[in-house]
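2024-03-11 09:14:02 DEBUG pipeline.ingest accepted 1 chain
2024-03-11 09:14:02 DEBUG pipeline.ingest length=429
2024-03-11 09:14:03 DEBUG pipeline.predict start
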Amino acid sequence: MARADIAMRPPILPRLLAPRLPFYYGWVVLGCICLAGFARQGPAVAVLSVFVVPMTEAFGWSRASIAGAVSLGGLLAAFVSPILGPVLDRRGPRLILCLAVLATGLSTMALSLAQSLIVFYCLFVFARMVWASPFDLGLYASVNNWFVARRTFATAFATLFQMLGLVAIPIIAQLAMHDGGWRAGWMAVGMTVLVVGFLPVWLLLVRRPEDLGLAVDHAKPGAKAAAAEPRFSRAEAMRTRAFWLLSLYTVLVYPVQAGVSLHQAAHLIERGLTPIAAATVISVFSAMSAVSGFGLGFLPRRLPLRFAMTGAAVLLAIGCFALIGVRTVHGAYLAAGLFGLGIGGLMTLLPVAWADYFGRESFGAIRGVVLSVQTLAQAVGPVLSGALRDWSGGYMLSLTLFGSLGVLAAFASLAATRPHVADERLPPS
């Protein structure tokens, strides 16, 4: 018991700062999460997409083989997530996020030394597993532990910085590649991850406000906002219709997110755009994701999240269909912008929905199960898109499929009403 208390004790700097700050320490935590979220994007599929063409030209690899590294990393994350979730609920995300930043930075820097597909797989699969599981659980568990009434706004702010990472890191990589080739690009990505992400999390992150003698949302102890939050265990949550409908939504949208994000640069180059133009289109996609994700933070809390999630799925579908026949840079900006609006909504709304529907007490355990489903769905998208492209010679089939999945996801989210009381839970089978 004593060892557990020592392990969860906040670092000394937050203990000194929290009583002296004129504002809620949760905003400091949110700042740490924003920087970690920016650093998380080193092995994101949008970043990898700018390396697809130069690395396939250098080694003669197929598109499907590169996409396979994304998928394999997701498969590994599916096994890790259910184990990490309960640990995060008990111990907090600080150590896991610190290790995640270090692992991501060092592995992406090491990719600059890759000489074979096997080495590429070993490094990128590991980085992608860290991206998909420890980072996701740690970032959103931190936000949900510190905020309830302002959860959507705080999550939107964290999402904004993740999108800013997607805007900046592909450009950083492309600029480094312009002078030093793809190896210099990976080195620049890894250095950016380490410089931005490590120290703030290590020095300032705290598990929960209660560890500093504070209350969630800076409310006074016993305030109604915290008391009214639902408290589902993992077993209870899995006996609700909402759990399975949100899981279905996840299964439908994440192949779209990962499949299109990884291959969009290659698709645009095949449609006649230059590599630099394709990189700027990816940045527009990321910028619109940031606009959408941050803007959703100002939605009234009384508005059902399922309506906003429906809109995000519809935008993903429209973006996919628009990308099929794109021929000009302006057309690419429009299609990628619509798709980015949907991605921003997806990244902000789903973590909030899980916390709002089932509470923060077992968020890690519940989210850990769902992340297994999510990472498996993400694993399917890139490989399927790459295989269809290699078979058909273009991306029309995969984009049509992904657009259709977005339409189906819209219907799933409309049906995902919030579970309010215990008698809405399904009986055990």
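2024-03-11 09:14:41 DEBUG pipeline.report The chain has 16 helices and no strands.
2024-03-11 09:14:41 DEBUG pipeline.predict end
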